[in-house]
């Protein structure tokens, strides 16, 4: 019997997990796929790597969905155990966010 919250790939290392989702977002062809990938990725009991976050942002902009790009950071803020770690993610992705024109909810003041 498998628990509802169990994942079929719970044995993946963090590096394999990162590769899996970076590849997934690089290949996502539409908004449904991007949102499904985000839902699956954020359902694990870990904070996704910056590589996953960056691949997800690029995928959101590729399918022309700005709101989902902003929501990536809302999900990330919930997953990070501290405000300090969240700010480190913001700093690590700053250049790409500026390049893609993606602002956080706080920057949008909403």
Automatic annotation (TrEMBL):
InterPro entries membership: Cyt_c_oxidase_su5A/6, Cyt_c_oxidase_su5A/6_sf
Main location: mitochondrion
Family membership: Belongs to the cytochrome c oxidase subunit 5A family.
Gene3D superfamilies cross-referenced by the UniProt entry: Cytochrome c oxidase, subunit Va/VI
GO molecular function annotation: metal ion binding
Record membrane topology: Peripheral membrane protein
The UniProt record lists the keyword Metal-binding: yes
Lineage, uppermost ranks: Eukaryota, Fungi, Fungi incertae sedis, Blastocladiomycota, Blastocladiomycetes
SUPFAM superfamilies: Cytochrome c oxidase subunit E (SSF48479)
Alphabetically ordered keywords of this record: Heme, Iron, Membrane, Metal-binding, Mitochondrion, Mitochondrion inner membrane, Transit peptide
Entry keyword Iron: yes
Oligomeric and partner information: Component of the cytochrome c oxidase (complex IV, CIV), a multisubunit enzyme composed of a catalytic core of 3 subunits and several supernumerary subunits.
Highest taxon of the lineage: Eukaryota
Name assigned to this protein: Cytochrome c oxidase subunit 6, mitochondrial
One GO location term (cellular component): mitochondrial inner membrane
Cited PANTHER family: CYTOCHROME C OXIDASE POLYPEPTIDE, CYTOCHROME C OXIDASE SUBUNIT 5A, MITOCHONDRIAL
Species this chain originates from: Catenaria anguillulae PL171
Pathway: Energy metabolism; oxidative phosphorylation
GO BP annotation list: mitochondrial electron transport, cytochrome c to oxygen
Task of the protein: Component of the cytochrome c oxidase, the last enzyme in the mitochondrial electron transport chain which drives oxidative phosphorylation. The respiratory chain contains 3 multisubunit complexes succinate dehydrogenase (complex II, CII), ubiquinol-cytochrome c oxidoreductase (cytochrome b-c1 complex, complex III, CIII) and cytochrome c oxidase (complex IV, CIV), that cooperate to transfer electrons derived from NADH and succinate to molecular oxygen, creating an electrochemical gradient over the inner membrane that drives transmembrane transport and the ATP synthase.
Subcellular location field: Mitochondrion inner membrane
């Amino acid at each position: 019997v498998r628990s509802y919250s169990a994942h079929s790939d719970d044995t993946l290392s963090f590096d394999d997990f990162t590769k899996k989702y970076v590849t997934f977002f690089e290949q996502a062809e539409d908004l449904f796929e991007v949102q499904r990938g985000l839902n699956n990725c954020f359902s694990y009991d870990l904070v996704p790597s910056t590589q996953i976050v960056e691949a997800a942002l690029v995928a959101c902009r590729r399918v022309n969905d700005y709101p989902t790009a902003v929501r990536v950071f809302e999900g990330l803020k919930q997953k990070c155990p501290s405000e300090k770690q969240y700010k480190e993610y913001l700093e690590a992705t700053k250049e790409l966010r500026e390049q893609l024109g993606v602002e956080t909810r706080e920057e949008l003041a909403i």
